[in-house]
Predict the 3D structure of the following.
Amino acid sequence: MAQPARRKELGRGERVLPGVWRLRLPLPYPGVPHCNAWAVAAGDGIVLFDTGMHESGSMGHLERAMEQVDLCVERVRLVVCTHGHPDHFGQAGTIVDRTGCEVWMHPDNGHVRRGVEDPDAAWERRIEVARHSGVPEEPLQAYAQARRESGSGLSRFVEPARDLVAGVEVETDLGRWTVTETPGHAPSHVCLFQPERRLLISGDHLLGRVSPYFDFGHTPDPAGEFLTSLDRVEALGARLCLSGHGRTFTDVQAHIEANRTLVSDRLSRVVEVLRERGPITAFDAVPHG
Ligand SMILES: [Zn+2]
Ligand SMILES: [Zn+2]
C-alpha cells in the first residue's frame, strides 16, 4: 500500500449503520482536513458514493479505510458521485480501472470536464472571473501559481455511464436511493435520498458546519440555485444526513434553515454596502458580507 509522505492523517473506516460505512479520507486543503466516501451494501458488493481526491498515496487511504471495515476496492460495483469536485470524483478513474464498474454523475459536469480536457484554458477562465470580480493582480498570480503546481486532484475524467438526474434510482441492500438535483455548490451537484429510512447523502450541499461555498463562474446565479436546492431537499424530510465532510448529523431541517439565514444575511449586508458606497467589486464587498 502506498504511504502518504506529507501528512500524518490516514484513511479511516467506520460502520455508521448496518450496511453503511463512512470512509474518512485525508485532504491537502487547509481548513478541510478530510472528506467522506460512503459505502453502502449492494448484493455481493457495495455502491460507493464519492471517491476521495486523487493525489500521491490517495488510493492507499481508501484501501486502508475499507480494510478497517472488511471491505475492498474490488467489491465496488458502482461509483455514484454527488458532484464533480476532486474530493468527490477524483479517484473515480482509478476505481473504474481496477473494477470495471460504472460511474454515475449529473450531466452538468462541464466545469470538471473542461478542467481536465484543457487545464490551461480552464485556469485562464477562472483567473479572468477573479480579475473581473476585483481580485488584485499580485495575490491572483500567487494563487494561480500555487494551484497549477498542486495538480488537478483527478486521476482522469471518467465519462459517466448514466446521467444522475431526477427520477434515477440507485439500488442497494438498504433500498432505493432517489436523485434530487441540487446545483449551487457546483452545477453537477445532486443529493441521494433513501425514503423508507429517510437517509440523505448530501455531498457538499449540506454539511455539519454551515459554510456555503459556490462554484462561481459556470452559471448565472449559484446562490439562487443553492436556495432552490435547499427547498427541494427540505421537501424530502430527511432525518439523518451523511455529508461529504465531517460526521453524520440528524438536525437536517435546522441545517437547511441556518444555510438560508446565512445566505440571506450576507446578501442583505452586500446590498446595504452597495447602497452606502455605490458600485464596488465583489472582492471589495466580501469583507462586508
Ligand atoms: Zn464540492
Ligand atoms: Zn467536498
Notes: Residues 62 and 221 are 35 Å apart (CA to CA). Residues 35, 85, 87-88, 204, 244-245 surround zinc ion (ligand 2) (CB under 6 Å). Confidence is low (pLDDT under 50) at residues 1-5.
